[in-house]
Fold these 2 entries.
Entry 1:
Amino acid sequence: MWYSNLYRRHLLDMHIEDWDEAFLSELDENKYVDNLKKADINYAMVYLQSHVGLCYYPTKLGSMHKAFEKDPWKMKRLVDACHKEGIKVCGYYSLIFNTREHDKHPQWQIVDENGFSIRRKKKQEAALQCSSSREARYGHICPNNPDQMKFVLGQIDEILDAFEVDAMFFDMPFWPDTCHCEHCEREYQRIYGRAVPRFGVEKPVYHLLSEEKKEEYRRLIRFKSEAMGKYVSKISAYVKSKRKDMPVEHNFAQAVAALAYSGCAEEVGEACDFVGGDLYGDIFNHSFSCKFFRAYSRNQPFEQMFSRCKPSLGSHTLTKTLDQMKISLASTMAHHGASLVIDAIDPVGTMDARLYEKLGQMFSLQKPYEKYFCGEMAEDIGIFVSLKSKIKMLLPDSRDCSVKFCSGLVQRHIPVSVVSPYSELEKHSFVAAPMLSVVDDKDAERLKSYVRDGGVLYISGFEAKELIGELTGHKLLGQTEENKVYFAPKEGAEEIFGGFNEKYPLPMGYSSPVVEAAEGARVLSVLKLPYTKPQDFDFASIHSDPPGILTDIPAITVNSYGKGIVIWAALPIEGEAYCEYTDLLLRLFKSLRELSFSFESLDAPSVVELTLFKNESFYTLNASLVSDVEKAFKLCPFTVRVKLDKAPREVLALGTGEKLDFNYSNGYLEFETPILDIFEMFRIDL
């Protein structure tokens, strides 16, 4: 597709009200495009409507922003000016978040069990000085309401009839709250034969629910995900009925960042030609989301958005340093994705031209490498992320565990990827499935098939009872009263545990499931409990709960399933950020199957991420700085090894053009890198 080689992207955030005649009055389409040119942008996302609900064109269905009353086609001229400069344009439209239509149409609102929308509740609380009025700014309309769907499709007609946009982007495809409107209640009753569940709090702690309530919770997650999937699929299909080949993207950020309660899951990704979204975590979260978006995108490149504001758009005049932006850019480059930088317009409609000089400098880092953004990514260890298992728990959920485990592997320079519904599980030496809870039949069968055919699967927790019970044969008996336990290695497993042993076991800060191990399972570790229970007045040590009571309750087991191996841990070892936990898992993997990773480095600093892409005639190895520092630092040369079937013809540092000396022996290419300054790509000619 035409977007496949456009990696320098931009969005000017324009959620601006119109109660002051000064708002957007100084918007100048020519200056806008001049700034894009300064930044060397080749793909611009342009607002045609916003969360406020105001349109930036003459709409017959909604409300046009007052700033455009005297010049209604300013944004059309902006789109045309972009095209004259060779810049492709993606039209922006906000779904669900539409404050103006929320206020006009009470029957469209997402409402709680008492019939109140979030905006209405927060406005009342603010009036009573119980809370800030900030949350009251956002009005949410229900995707299950057929009248609002008709309204959205009508506005899409208006946009596509008026603007020659090249793509469409739809924002906010998720549920900010559970809706109890008549349409949601009727649909839920039709599907499940009961009312939409009420939990007393919007996001209950899953572990504290009864089994009956847990099933209700899982049903509600499925309902929200499927309803949102149907909603965005209709929108995508409608756009394509008007413009057959027009790419459509729905913001997929909530699939990474939010709980499953949001309903932004696989179904939303399936309605996209490519996926992406705006995220605001640290650099390791950025790296993880790149892997996530790459795995879930049906077409490449995926789109990683980041704000120029520091730390996010809430700080309107505080801008990240050039090095901070380059580091974010480099992380996306290392995964061959497209970077979309988000700026925020001044309410009067002006832009800070100084920023665009800086963005031009930022993108100058990327331009020389863009033609090499191709190939198949090396993915030796796969992390199976269950989008419907991202639930509020008393311990890290599936998403938290996945990010921490991924970060640990990145820092150890081990090829790792996210496993999506489109991924081929069999190409991974190991697959980790952290803290699964809500698993559909299709995903369960994929995991079982992977192991049956000879794969090695690591799985933790016992919330996905049916799947884990079948894979391990273990029987769940209950839960420890203690909310801190220890994993004590059995005889013969001490080496896997490093310096931890029966007397000094590995600490885990949570209550653990109690299981009866299946016959034939190898128990590598058992639980060791503190001397006292949490409710006891007596204690052993005033500051902590040291290990005191050794049990025979399994903590880590290994068993066969078909031709493969299942490793089970009672608690998420992968959910701990410390090196001892990641290293334990790696030693465990290596004890079960010989490992030869696609690449490795014994002396690269942990602040370097390595990724490898394979093409028929060449490989590219990417090295990027992963650090949240404001001023980047250069890194001394380090050695990397790349697994190859034959000696390469040449190794070239593409940034400098330097040919590098190398050795090849025992199936591995070895070379020393030059000094690393944020990013470098090495081309290995075969």
Entry 2:
Amino acid sequence: MKRSLLAAAVLLLTLPVRASLPAETSVPDIEKQPHPIDSVVVTGTRYRSDIRHLPMSVSTVDRRQIERQHEQSLLPLLTEQVPGLFATGRGIMGYSVSTGAAGQLSLRGIGGAPQDGLPTTGLMVLIDGHPQYMGLMGHPIADAYQSMLAERVEVLRGPASVLYGSNAMGGVINIVTRKMQEEGVETGLHAGYGSYNTLQTELTNRVRADRFTSVVSGSYNRTDGHRPRMGFEQYGGYAKLGYQLSRAWDIYADVNLTHFNASNPGSVTAPVIDNDSHITRGMTSFALQNDYGKTSGALSFFYNWGRHKIDDGYSPGAESLDYRFHSRDDMLGISWYQSARLFEGNRLTLGFDWFRFGGRAWNQPLDGSERTMLADKVQHEVAVYLDFRQTIASWLILDAGIRYDRHSHAGSQWVPQAGLSFLPSSNAELKISASKGFRYPTIREMYMFPPQNPDLKPERLWNYEIAWSQRLAEGRVSYGINVFYIDGANLIMRIPVDGRPKNINTGRIENAGAEAQIGWRISPAWSLDANYSYLHMKYPVLASPEHKLYAGAAFTRGRWNVSTGVQYVGGLYTSVKVNGSGTDKQENFVLWNLRGSFRVCKILSIFARGENLLAQRYEINAGYPMPKATVLGGIDMKF
């Protein structure tokens, strides 16, 4: 403990990755002093706030960057642009679920189980602030987070449990959905075709008519995959309707549906036949928002659900399974918050969350006989939280928050956080913060499959940071650097008990590291950006790299838009020792990607994308070699 406190006093920092946000995020009453529009975010506060006044690290990626990638998924872009964040992959398209799946997320070494490679449960994905995870397993579904949804993405690096509760132990990824900014109607078509018979398509219509806005999108994506029996196919649809009731009140509702079919060939050393997944996921939400300047808030309802059908497959020479795994899960939630400026320089936010989640899982025999139930559980989580921000002087801001969270089975948690923001000038910030994160055990960990243990307790950790960021040359150059220390205990591990594996709160995590970012707008046509993260792990964590470096350049002039980037990943753990058995294995690789588009006329552009152009041989999931150089080209139409 003494060592932890000493490290906390030396280490600590926060760096925001700057990116242009849409004009709608302008909030003139946030603070009276001027601030650049690219500094307004919602994820670290619930309400819109100047990023300079937050003690935590928040990275943003905007719509321009998303469109420039020409990717169907958001995760590759976030892996490039957000220091400390890494997402696993296994092929050219698709992540799937269950054995052999990719899409595991790690932020500063926090995400999935440190040694088992189990799904991401320590890093929360949000859509417009609403939690997105599988009701039984507790993990996000990577294939549901498509580029067509997002106006921008905000990533809070570090615990966000005060605002978002369990599963936000390592941070949150908040997908802010699209909205038409100007009056009128716009329809866009994106279609591309490339290596391994890969097809990606998207059709989006957006409308703004006085107080009414709507977004309707549909997509179809598929690939044969770069290995036999590694096909992926996905259908998706999204719709959002909004109406401005008055100058202070807005209402919106949305729905998102996706279905995908994925095949897993197994590792190259242990191939599998007929390991197929058929997954349907849905999300809907309704929100009533108010903004009077001095006070703002929202009341929202959301509901997520899923239907999973999985054939676990069989080894060559063995007999096929005579059953299929089925599950039905859901998550229902109601959230309310209201933020008010009680007096000069003050902001107080009070919030309430109630979540209900669970479902049923069973093995269904193919001969129609009685199913074997694996789980039939429902659990609840209820919480209240308070966040207090006070401008002590023009150069000093205090932020403190606390949450009381109660789980229907695993007990309760008090979750504090505190931070200071020093503003020595209008172009520089120094930030210090300390925050607690936690995660309740999932239904899977407590009740499903042989390692289950209903007596599990919550995982918990403390994160300490110090950060410095600055803008130079009239804002054309920006940079930041932060250092952090993470000390966690009670992590759920699989260990042998009486000769059988069992989930036990026995794991620890002790990570420390540094993150840096720089951006330079050289001219209206040219820009450069780079980010780097270093992670020291006392206890190795699967799917977490020790080093991650990205350097990119972009050129935009007239009809041309070209971007390129090189990413280095070093010391990525693809396997680790578990209970003294196995080996620690690490991968190092360099990826070069190139993307470009040319506007043929007012409504038509053509694009091309090349990935891993150095044809590197590497693995992210052990036994799953990634494809070498791939290309994809197509058209974008807007009318």
